[in-house]
Amino acid sequence: MTKKIKRGFTVFLMLFVVVLFASAQHPKYVFYFIGDGMGVNQVNGTRVFISSPKGANTDSVSIQQLLMTTFPVASVATTHSATNRVTDSAASGTALATGHKTYNHAIGVDVNKQSLTSIAYKAKRSGYAVGIASTVGIDHATPASFYAHQPSRNLYYEIASELPATNFDFFGGSGFFASLDKKRTDILTKITDGGYTIVRGYDAFDKLPNSAKKVVLIQKEGKNPTDVPYAINRDKDDLTLTQITKAAIKQLSKNKKGFFVMLEGGKIDWACHGNDAATVFQEVVDMDNAVKVAYDFYLKHPKQTLIVITADHETGGLALGTGAYHLNLGALHYQTCSIDKLTEAFNKLRKEKNNQVTWEQAKELLAEKMGFWKHLTLTWPQERKLHDVFEESFVNKDMSLDENMYASNEPLAAAAKEVMSSIALVSWASSGHSDGLVPVYAIGVGANEFKTTQENSDIPVKIEKIARYK
Fold first, then answer.
1. Residue 442 domain-assigned?
2. I want to staple 375 with a disulfide (CB 3.0 to 4.6 A). Which of 43, 58, 297, 371 is the partner?
3. Does 338 fall in a domain?
4. If DSSP codes are grouped into helix, strand and coil, which group holds residue 109?
5. What is the pLDDT of residues 395-449, one digit of tens each?
6. Which of 335, 316, 336 has its CA nearest to residue 434?
7. Which residues are within 8 A (CB) of 91 and not within 5 positions of it... i.e. 6 or more apart?
8. What letters, b where the CB count within 10 A reaches 16 and e where it falls short, cover 365-380?
9. What is the pLDDT of residue 15?
10. CB 35 within 8 A of CB 276
11. Do 226 and 174 meet the contact criterion of CB atoms below 8 Å apart?
């Protein structure tokens, strides 16, 4: 063989290797995290919160990063639906699942109510294992958008009934809203009849035989099927997104080709609807803890894994600052429960005192749960606000509950939340969604595709392209 032929052969071989290497650069494992209601300020506020030591006046400029905020790719996405500047979770969930914008309340269908194919179905038909999970009901808007096709997000029974036909390998969450339907009580039976093993609690999942092919992980018997408890309220036996993520990896890894999994931090949104800053920030931390599980997996498979994190929309119009040139998020560390749980505590107090609660007894509870007076000094207007609401609710028995999308709160609990926000120097535009930009973070194979501002509907299209789902 002449030198010229040898040189030509060498060049050809090198080109062949380059092409072969390039063709192999697609992820075997895809993690898709969605923080429901998690706008840019929810993330930035969480960074400030965890960086601020517990205290009444702790305006720290140092920042402790969340894991997700250290990812090499960070950008933003828009969230509007096809019909509304401000989206709901169904339309945004459908956009994030299918790459198509649709009308508010739509689940997996387009503006003409025709079924759309989600990235989860495309991954499944491409031979990958598929998991869908959340910290709320598996038939709630965001997870539902990845597997169901219904004209309204409120059709819980119809949504859950589609689950068995998906043949997806893993579902995880609190349970099913459909199980609360008193007229149709067979939804769990329909799912088990469809070949799924329903397992309650992480410990029970951990004991499952390896032969269990399709699994639905939900909370233990007696727990609320609509949502797992907030991180700030958590008991030791409560299911967590971290546990769900671990379970998903274990179940989906049985497929040697790889997997796709969507994991939703669903209750960031719920806390934002309630304008409950301390609970919001702890929910973001909780999702970041689940991201750490995926990141540990990535470190073992860095050339085969893609992690993408985003949100479906911003909720509450959260603002960090109320006019002064500082923040006081360290005060939020004194809040020991969500406002929903504070409502339960006030209701319990009413019952114990036969509806004859004194102001001093109410103050004692607020000191215990919110840190007022005990750790946080209140201004006269702040204390007067609490006392006036106490008079209306506990003395005059004028029980006008504070309503938001997911809770009805005792007026004094709602007032305590407002006082805490004023102490922390955060404010809220509403108890609903906004058109605020949401963050996008990515690491791993193909992560650079997400480095520019994008529509939310662009994100699944990019993942499909990178992973070569068909």
1. no
2. 371
3. yes
4. strand
5. 887 666 666 666 778 999 999 999 999 999 999 999 999 999 999 999 999 999 9
6. 316
7. 81, 82, 83, 84, 101, 102, 103, 104, 105, 106
8. bbeebbbbeeebebee
9. 44
10. no
11. yes
pLDDT tens digits, one per residue of 186-224: 999 999 999 999 999 999 999 999 889 999 999 999 999
Residue 305: give the domain boundaries: 26-320+453-467
Distance set, CA 61 to CA 21, 322, 326, 327 (Å): 45, 17, 9, 10
**What is the 8-class DSSP label of residue 104?**
T
Task: Examine the domain organization and report whether 224 and 273 are in the same domain.
Answer: yes
Given a contact cutoff of 8 angstroms between Cβ atoms, the answer to whether 464 and 44 are in contact is no
Does 115 map to a domain?
A: yes
Q: 277: domain CATH number?
A: 3.40.720.10
What lies within 8 Å, CB to CB, of 82 at 6+ separation is 91, 101, 102, 103, 111
Length, in residues, of the chain: 470
Residue found by looking up tokens 């036969």 in the block = 354
Residue whose entry in the numeric block shows the structure tokens 């598929």: 130
Is residue 77 within 8 Å of 95, Cβ to Cβ? no
Is the residue at 366 inside a domain?
yes
- Which residue shows structure tokens 């945004």? 92
CA distance 386 to 15: 74
Q: 0.85 cut: is pTM over it?
A: yes
